[in-house]
Amino acid sequence: MKKLYIFLLACLSLTSCEIDEDINVNPNKPSDASGGQLLANSMLSLPGLSSSTQAQFMAQYLSELQYVGTSLYPEGATNFYGWYTGPLMNLETVINSEELDGKEGPIANQKAVAKILKAYYFWNITDRWGDVPFSQALKGNANFTPAYDTQESIYNNLFILLNEANEQIVTGSISNDIVYGGDMERWRKLSNTIRLLMALRISEVNPSKGKEEFNKALAAGIMTSNADNFVFKHLALEVNENYWYSQISLQNRLTWWSLSENLVNTLKATADPRLPVFANTNDADEYAGLRFGSPNGGDPLKYSTLGEQLWQQDAPVYLVTYAQALFAKAEASKRGWIEGGDAEAEANYNEAIKQSIAQWTGSTTEAADYLANAEVAYNPDTALEQIATQRYIHLFMHGYEAWAEWRRTGYPNNLVSPEGKDVPTRLMYTATEAANNTANYNEALQRQFGGTDGLYGKVWWDK
Amino acid sequence: MRKLYLSTLLLLLVCWCGTALAQQVNVSGTVTGADSGIPLPGVSVIVKGTTTGVTTSADGTFQISVPNQESVLLFRFLGYEVQETRVGNQRVFNVRLNPDSKQLGEVVVTALGIAREERSLGYATQEVKGEDLTLTKEQNVLGSLSGKVAGVQMTGSSGSSMGGTQKIQIRGVNSVTGGGQPLIVVDGTPISNANFAGRSGADYGNLAQDINPEDVESINVLKGPAASALYGIRGQYGVVMITTKKGKKGPKKVDVQLNSAFSVEKVGNFMPMQNIYGGGGSQTWRTLANGEKYVDGTDESWGPKMDGTPVRHMHSFYPQDPMYGQLEPFVPQPDNIKDFFETGHNLNNGVSISGGNENSSFRLSYNNTRIEGVEPNTWLKRNNLGLSASLDLSDKITASANINYANNDAQRPSQGYYEGSRNFMQWFQRNLDMKRLKNYKYDDGTFYHWNIGRPNAQGVITNWRPSDWNNPYFEAYENLNNDNRDRFFGDVGLTYQVLPDLKVSGFVRSDMYTQNIESRIAAGGRSVNAAYSTGKYQNKEMNYEFLAQYTKEWNDFSFNVNVGANLFDRNYTYLSQATRGGLTSPGFYNIEGSSERPAVASYLLRKQLNSIYGMATVGYKDTYFVDFSLRRDHSSTLPDPYYYPSVSASFVFSELLNWQPLSFGKLRASYAMAGNDVSVYATSMNYEIGGLYGTVNTSFVPDVLNNPLIKPSFATSYEVGADLKFFNGRLGADVTYYEQRNEDDVITLNVSGASGYSSSYINAGLMVNKGIEIALTGTPIQTQNFSWDIAFNAARNRGTVKELYPGLDSRLLESNTYSGVSMYLYSNVGEQFGSIVGQAYQRDPETGKILLGSNNMPLYTTATHNFGSVLPDATGGLQNSFRLGKFDLSAMIDYQLGGQFISWSRMLAVKAGLAPETAAINENGKNVRDPLAEGGGVKVSGIYGPGVKINDEDVSGREFTGFVDARTYFRNTLGTRIYEEWIYDASYVRLREIRLGYSLDKASLGSLPFQKVGIAFIARNPLMIWQKAPEGLNPAELATGSSSFGWLETGGLNTVRSYGVNLNISF
């Protein structure tokens, strides 16, 4: 019997030994991340705000030559989750962090950059979808069902956020900055330029607030040259390559898209010096665009495909540019938001075009000739249309921004309705919101669009 | 530290051996039937009042160790009276059993390897014998269970018959996540059944295929918590207990068996295709400047009629081609898909040597398999080595070992959408000649592809890269998938009969493998950059186990107590690497040849599980039995330990009746709880390493939120049933009703991404499965020369999702998007598990008629239509075995009723104009592709939808019947948007195995040195007797790698039918 006891004892000692908690500590993932690492990661998502086919179809920059489908504006959700779970959650972590490391640059500056990027991402999101979760968003398990804020309140909060960023920037650069190399002055200018462009975006719904914010942004200091442009510079490496390189070069899809007929015709009519950059010539050595939304596509040999420079592995993605700021100032002068009237408008308009040509072609030598073009030369009677049209050309391949400006201004007015379907005026919400966040989703739809999630509801500023 | 304890423990065991020898008694003997005098194999020989027992071997012999001379041996066999014999001084017994009406149970292996009398079990078990598993030499042991066990659903895959995935589901889906594969246990050692395959790419199969089917003595499936409660946190989804063959103790004897099988494998079940229209997007010919017509290099068959028109085929644009610049007739190639496949071969050779003497036994086996696949350039080589040995160190102490080694080496075809050759059923030209494509490489090294952009007007092609699809032979010979695996599993142990009533044992069990997977993508195809990836995955699982078994009889009562402990330790690592940006030297497939910094991932998983458990059975008059068990598990992945209890009872009521036809009758009932723990590292917060930008490193917040408060999931089951045997066992019925509640599943709850996380680990959900299982066995005819045995089983299960998470009544399980259109698989509260949701026809609510738009095309809903569950209503199988003299014939049929799946292959075959209906004759006697004006088109009838206007006139509600353009209808509407068309019922009845054998015994073999020779013709998958889904799809082969369900077919490998000869020789 004694032996039995020893056995049982041995048996108990085997299991009474509790488990070492270290076994469940994940050795494969870091338990900490620095502010600089999180910021840099958030910046990696920036090209996605522009680099997509949907964006170019919304602005009708590109037509589908083959596999026609997405350009016919089929009903269907576009997922916005990735923006929240990706860059925004990283930025929110930096903004709320109490453990940022001063060795990566002044903590105030790290937080300022996080706020600017947060504002920029949210601005893009709300412009595309309308009301979205904002004030209750990014709270993790504290709130898995965040309510949707109105676009108006999101705009107001973003104005405040951008102003905070502008005011908290101190001397001293930050590390790990893959956009501006740590130059805080350029971040400040970006912050104010975003605020300026956002202010103009509400010109139709709340011009007085727009004017007020516009002038505050201007006073705080906006971009002053193309060197201040907010550009994501891709690298000639597989892990950092341009989306269009991957589509066109790696996946052999050059003949999937041509420039749209309306765009090519606009550019051809004025011998636009940007056209040879934007497009290749067809089989007959001519520039020819395919009518947008042609249900059967077109023969790739007959149409102008996307210019080679735009799908290099390291081709940059232009997000917020000096020329946009100048177009905004031109429009603001014309609207009387800032002083100077037509003269100021014309000066800004001409400079905007010049800077746009410089941005796209690397030279301004052809700008004067181009500006002399009767259709291009500033005309006080059609100034708003001219500004919008030129801005549309300038924003080539930054389709979502061009689409937002089209929704606001109605220009260019030659966009087509493929198969009778008009250009959508918003994107449909993430399909799974209906299941994951039902009450808030339904409330947001009810509030804005009479309960229907479609492509043709109008967002708050779209009057 | 723990290992030290274990070593001490084992040492103690060994030490005691020395002090307490001498009482154990070894006896042996032969059991024959008193009626026939023929030796009886499979007779249970039990030491009365204990759980110690053996069964007699094929020649009726047995060896058993009994505690002392006072021990009494019980001999039990189906259809015979029980015989009791006191051991006394006798050491060899020749027992003659008298036939009897009273049918008694057998010894079965239960949880933790505890052998028990079946009559004492309060839950259902169903055992499959080894010979029924190797009927037709199926390579994957799990696959050979198909249709043989009630309530066990096997979903196979073709794997083009090279050990592809076999998925097992016991009593339906028991998790709201759809996960949950049973534990596989071989001779008491839990082994990994992982799967490295995904939906696309090579199907490496599940790792249980490393078990040599020839080594399997029997498989016992523990179907639910009642049977598997002793496995605690590992037992929620049931256990598949595999017992291997062993040598026999007794008079010195050696058996040698040779086993050889050769089969030819042919691809079957081709999808029908049209052979009228060829490659192109329109029936109008494309022409060069010189007027020559040419075949458009597009990947669809909506082109011109294949009427023999002389045209430039794609190869005629290759300057290297002998037919360069030449015109050849444009004709159909009806067999182009068939022509791609080859006749495969499967050669399987095995030898086993078993034997023993008075105090030892061993069995050694070796098996070699070589398969040449039906897909070009694919093969599998497998070696299995097995050794099991047992040695009595003394009368009381036995040392034993089971060691298995398996080695696999394969080059496999890819399945799925974008890899391999599946596209020829999805995106292809009906005019492509496979024999021509076979010469895929020109002498100058350039590759010949068919899916190339158009030439210019002069007939010059400048971009030679395939648009979407490589030449299938380029895929087969240049883009290779290779994998190999070395694996050891087995155990060593000591068993010590401490006292006559007390036995203790200690085992060390191990399962370890190294899996290597590599793949190559060659330059010169669709991909600009060549690429190479390689991964090494190593898993080591150790189990240190202790078990004490105590049995006692006291008057009419019997007691049986088991107490044990187990320590489980797992260490899994991998290192995977892939080149980036191409290779520096073409053809040099090595990570060092990466143009850019390669992608590298290394990973370590550690897990430990400490368990103690106990079980007690009380029997009264060998008629009433009650069982209790309790297990405590502490998993390293969870903060706290948990307990898992069970209770069960059985009542052998036939003991109280004296009704002649009923030989045996038992009622049983049980209640039990088992569980499943959380994956590792799910309870603490961490960050993720993000991509690099130049030299700038990044991190990000993960998308899945970990949860420190997580608990294990619990399954509670109730089960009642009856086992009945009539007419001396000629007819048997086993009926079980069960209800299993699976609660607090550990799920990654999908949450609104606006929270910053896409999902969070959480305990949630309640899934209730209710079902009934019936197993019938019968021997309608049994004479000296002819016998007929039938085994039939049927099961019906309904799994309902009762709760998910407060406020959530729908959970996305999987989704898939094609051409911008998504389809989803959901768990919905109140519904059967696994609802397919997608785009359907819009229908008039009153008449059910399809709604049409202004272009007369059907309107479709958004992706919100619920098509119902993927799960079958019922599954089962029927096995018939006949024996006529020296001939035997067996046929195995399995079936499934209900369940649904989506087929991309069918959808795309229609979309791309390959399927017959896209070129059918319409009601006007014209081809549907003929112009509408000439009577062509597809007939459509329906009602114009609300708000539909034609020429500004509101036509909504008006009926329309007429013809529409075939391409717009099939390609742009049905094939792209209306998934209702591509969802199929998965019901089938399949003839899975058939075997016709002939055996020669010693008498007929004369002077040949053989004891027995058997030869058999075997066929696997010879025939799908009936299926609801269209030809070309196989509803029984929907398993895709490691994904939980076969709900979505995106390009499965073709069904393989295999026919062969099997030769068995015993020396």
Automatic annotation (TrEMBL), chain A:
InterPro entries on file: SusD-like_2, TPR-like_helical_dom_sf
Gene3D superfamilies given in the database record: 1.25.40.390
TM region positions: none
Pfam families per UniProt: SusD-like_2
Full protein name: Starch-binding associating with outer membrane
Automatic annotation (TrEMBL), chain B:
Localisation: Cell outer membrane
Annotated protein name in UniProt: TonB-linked outer membrane protein, SusC/RagA family
Signal peptide interval: 1-22
Cross-referenced Gene3D superfamilies: Carboxypeptidase-like, regulatory domain, TonB-dependent receptor, beta-barrel domain, TonB-dependent receptor, plug domain
Residue stretches spanning the membrane: none
Family in the record: Belongs to the TonB-dependent receptor family.
GO cellular component: cell outer membrane
Natural source organism: Pontibacter chinhatensis
Membrane topology of this protein: Multi-pass membrane protein
High-level lineage: Bacteria, Pseudomonadati, Bacteroidota, Cytophagia, Cytophagales
Keywords of the record: Cell outer membrane, Ion transport, Iron, Iron transport, Membrane, Signal, TonB box, Transmembrane, Transmembrane beta strand, Transport
GO annotation terms (biological process): iron ion transport
Family matches, as Pfam families: CarbopepD_reg_2, Plug, TonB_dep_Rec_b-barrel
Residues annotated as domain TonB-dependent receptor plug: 119-239
Keyword Transmembrane applies: yes
TonB-dependent receptor-like beta-barrel domain boundaries: 439-834
